[in-house]
Design a protein that fits this description.
There is one protein chain. The chain is globular, with a radius of gyration of 22 Å. The strands form three sheets. Strands 1, 2, 3, 4, 5, 14, 15 and 16 form an eight-stranded mixed β-sheet that branches. A four-stranded parallel β-sheet has the order 6-7-8-9, sandwiched between helices. Strands 10-11-12-13 form a four-stranded parallel β-sheet, with helices on both faces. 55% of the residues are buried. The protein is an alpha/beta fold. Helix 9 packs across helix 10.
Length: 467
């Protein structure tokens, strides 16, 4: 028999939900980690015989799962959590989010990003796609990327861009201050940020046109070209509001996805947030071109934006991942909540309890999320990056566990995560993120948020009981 080989970490005695090609689940399983990667997965007894770990973690009563990908978030919103409630999306943007964004300074954004990244790590999220546009100067964008990396997470900061002012932007009342740079200048600033965080960076910078419906189409064209030149994805909001496609049609004679396809801009690099209001032709085009969609059911419900056609998009061939859409439009960066809300929203919209299943939403949060972000991983397979989370399934709210997957989707919450690894590095354990003074961070975030609320004129929104 071969002598046991050394490994850094052995997680043993767990319910291991691998999301491998066979969708294997071990009821008494183990995961070995070495050199930042998954070295072995299988029954606990077998791995105990094969490996000599530097550290063993007893995971009885717990599940080991792939790390989650938050496919669409706005970390800068962390300082505005809990205000701006009860507004439909256009009023929410015009009366709350745009003014909030304009009053943020660079240190506000960096603090908010660090707070959001800590929240993500505590929730078992190992990869984030952060659509950042407030403020959008290169120094702040790079500081946000650094904050995410400081916590130990991977992913991308999609630099939000608007460029030259369009008729739709004018009609919707976007603040002129958002059009600080021309289309050409926006693209050049994004290129500079991308060069600073090239291949090998844990957090890349992507082109991130803010919204297809009211952004400059030439900006979108330039963003796609930048993404292709630098071998990254590009990211934008797509047809989140019911009037988005109609406005685009009135201005350009076609719907947004149809325009992308016609212009040769729709490809597998596209990561499109929301995609609620699509017609059959658009869904087919997204699938045919291998595009990626971030489904954000919690924010869609919060803003009453509508319900995405989950089955239609997946059946067409689009890769559908899950996003939280930031702390201002859903409250928590909690993929457990997003998975559950995905199930419930689809079933409620279709009146079909089989419209979405646990297995599908768990795939969207893990393996499809990794595909969306263009990263290896999303499954517990040998050689994959050791991005994983350990979830406590003990306690009255989760017992008995007849099926680990059901427990994870229906009863678990972010606060049940007890350990998160990203690239083999412990980024959350025993109630804290190593290297981060969370008490000081939260105090700083509260102070900056308080000043920001006063500066933006949002004090009335903080009334304890509103009528």
């Amino acid at each position: 028999m071969r002598e046991p080989q050394p490994c850094a970490l052995l997680l043993s005695g767990a319910q291991v939900v691998t999301v491998d090609a066979a969708r294997t689940v071990y009821t008494d399983g183990a995961v070995a980690v070495a050199d930042g990667r998954i070295a072995d997965v299988g029954p606990t007894r077998e791995l105990a015989a094969r490996w000599r770990p530097g550290r063993t973690v007893d995971c009885r009563g717990r599940a080991v799962v792939p790390g989650f990908t938050d496919a669409h978030t706005h970390l800068f919103q962390s300082l505005a959590r809990g205000i701006g409630d009860g507004l439909a999306i256009r009023r929410w943007l015009n009366e709350f989010m745009w003014p909030y964004a304009l009053h943020l300074d660079a240190e506000d954004a960096r603090t908010a990003a660090l707070l959001g990244a800590v929240e993500a790590a505590r929730a078992g999220i190992t990869t984030v796609v952060d659509h950042h546009y407030a403020p959008g100067d290169p120094a702040t964008v790079l500081a946000v990327a650094e904050a995410i990396e400081q916590v130990g997470l991977g992913g991308a900061v999609a630099r939000g861009m608007l460029g030259d002012r369009t008729r739709i932007a004018e009609e919707r009342g976007l603040p002129a201050a958002f059009h600080r740079w021309s289309t050409a200048r926006e693209l050049e600033l994004t290129r500079q940020c991308m060069a600073e965080r090239g291949p090998g960076s844990r957090v890349r910078v992507w082109p991130g046109p803010l919204n297809l419906s009211y952004g400059d189409p030439e900006l979108t064209r330039g963003a796609v070209e930048l993404a292709r030149a630098h071998d990254v994805r590009w990211h934008t909001h797509l047809s989140e509001g019911a009037r988005d496609p109609a406005d685009f049609l009135a201005a350009y004679g076609t719907r947004p996805v149809s325009w992308l396809a016609r212009e040769g801009l729709l490809d597998a690099r596209a990561t499109l947030a929301h995609a609620v209001w699509l017609d059959e032709e658009e869904r087919a085009a997204l699938g045919a071109h291998g595009a990626h969609v971030a489904h954000n059911p919690c924010s869609n419900a919060y803003l009453a934006s509508g319900t995405m056609d989950w089955r239609g998009l997946r059946a067409a061939g689009a890769v559908v991942a899950l996003g939280t859409d930031g702390p201002s439009a859903g409250g928590r960066q909690d993929l457990f909540e997003v998975m559950k809300q995905t199930l419930f929203a689809q079933r409620q919209a279709t009146l079909d309890p089989a419209a979405a299943r646990c297995e599908e939403v768990f795939e969207a949060a893990t393996v499809d999320g990794a595909r969306y972000a263009g990263r290896a991983g999303g499954s517990l397979t040998v050689g994959a990056p050791a991005d994983l989370a350990v979830v406590d399934l003990t306690g009255a709210a989760r017992q008995p566990v007849h099926r680990a997957l059901s427990a994870l989707v229906y009863t678990a919450r972010a606060c049940d995560v007890v350990l998160t690894l990203a690239g083999g590095r412990v980024v959350f354990e025993d109630g804290h993120c190593p290297g981060i003074d969370e008490e000081e961070l939260c105090a700083r975030a509260r102070e900056r948020a308080h000043r920001l609320v006063k500066r933006a004129g949002f004090v009335p929104l903080t009334t304890p009981w509103q009528r």
